[in-house]
Amino acid sequence: MKIVSYIRVSGSPYDESALSLDTQREYIARAAEQNGWDIVSEFVDVAASKVAIGKRLEGAKALVMCKRLGAPLVVAKLDRLSRSAHHIAQLMKELEFKVATMSHATAYELHLYATLVEHERKFIYKGLRDAQPLPQQIVGLELHPSFLEEHPHYATFRIGRTSENRQLAAVAVSNRVKVFHSEVRPHIQACLDTGLTTLSDVANCLNGKGIKTSRGGLWSSTQVKRVMEALNLKL
C-alpha cells in the first residue's frame, strides 16, 4: 500500500512531547516496514499544532497528494497532525490517516485519544484553574489509574460509579491499554533490534530514549516483561 509520510517539527520550547525530525522519520519507516507500506513521498513542516494541517505549507501539499493517489497519510504520533479533536475529526472525514506508533488503532481509539490530548493542551496553556470541564466524549468514563497518575490534573473531576459507568470504564481501560501498547511497541522493537538479550537491557534502552511507562515513570525489567508478553515480543 502506498502512503504519504508527514512530519511536523514544533518550534515551540513548550512542546515537551515533540519528537525530532529523525525520530519521526525512523518511526514511520519502521511502521512502513512492519506493515508493508510503500512511502511514496515525505512532507515536513515546522509549525504549531494549533494550525490545521490544511493551512500548513507542506501539510496542504501532503493532503493534495494523498487525495490524488488515494493514499493514507502517516504520521509518527497523533499530535504531529494536531492536538485539536475538531481538526482530527475533520481530517477523518477527508481522508484515511495512520499513526506509526499505533498503526492498528481504530478510528474510535484515535478520536478518543485526540480528545484527551486536546484537553491536556488546554491545561498546559490556560493553567489548571482556568481549564475547561472534561469534554462530553469522556464524561462518565472512569479514567485509567495509570492515566490519572501521568495526568494528575484530571483527578479533580468526580466521575459517577454507576453500573453503566463501570461498563464504560472497562471499555475505557481496555482502549487506553491498547493505545499505550501501540505507542510503546516500536520503541521496544527498536531496542530489541539492536541485539539486546536481557529485560534489564531493554529497560535501560527505553529509559535512555526517554520513553516513560504508562504511569509516567522509569522502566524496570518486570514492567518490560509484562508489556512484552502482552505484545507477544520475545528477546
UniProtKB/TrEMBL annotation:
Keyword DNA-binding found: yes
Pfam families: Resolvase
Cross-referenced InterPro entries: Resolv_N, Resolvase-like_N_sf, SSR_resolvase
Key words, A-Z: DNA recombination, DNA-binding
SMART domains: Resolvase (SM00857)
Domain Resolvase/invertase-type recombinase catalytic residues, every copy: 3-129
Domain of life: Bacteria
GO molecular function terms attached to this record: DNA binding; DNA strand exchange activity
PANTHER family for the chain: DNA-INVERTASE FROM LAMBDOID PROPHAGE, SERINE RECOMBINASE PINE-RELATED
Protein name, entry field: Resolvase/invertase-type recombinase catalytic domain-containing protein
